[in-house]
Amino acid sequence: MQLKLDLHIHSDRSPDGKMTLEEIVSVCRAKGLNGAAVCDHDQVLEAQTSFPDFLLIPGVEVSTQFGHLLGLFVTQPIDTRDFFAAADAIHAQGGLAVLAHPFQHTRDESRFAAIAPWLDGVEVFNSRAARKNQQANAMALAWAERHGLAPFAGSDAHIPKEIGNAFLTVEAENTLPEAVKAALRGGKGFFAGRNSPARYTAMSQLTKKKKTGASVPDYLKWTLFALRCCAQDLFRRGE
Q: In degrees, to the nearest 5, what angle opens at C-alpha 90 toward C-alphas 86 and 92?
């Protein structure tokens, strides 16, 4: 059976997220998706919540010295920020370790040279990755292909409008976790996506400031950031 999966979404459990699981599933269904992975910042989706006819994949986005690492199909906390230990902890749970948006903030491919053997795949299309580096997704795809790693794709959605801006289509025997994991590992998925507007990143940063009780100077800095994001959107629309 064919499944369309958005493999990187943040819920309201992330500091910069505001969507409930119910809202995520509702929007995914409306956009024709069969499943999604909830990957909150350094926080595993431990509660086993199920929804009829929808595959909700528990995950996490771990902050490491090599950037963000997605752990898919994990339900136990990952209590380390060391990349190698985190990858081992993900695999110990039978999960998939996926390098998230590796070139979002860098063009230096050499910094990832040592970590390929610990990975099951690479996020080759992330809808937010091109805000700073317009070649981020193309670079991620090329790096994944050179290292023989499976392609993954996710919107990195923090608000409903972003959901489904990137997704992976795979053929799986059924929707049971082991069958879906096997399909994803196989590297036969087809990704599709489009870049999210930069202003959506500003919106999620505003959510974070509200949740964390930011100071007035912090809000002023955010205002400048939001203006730059809006200007970037206008500029790219005119290209």
A: 115
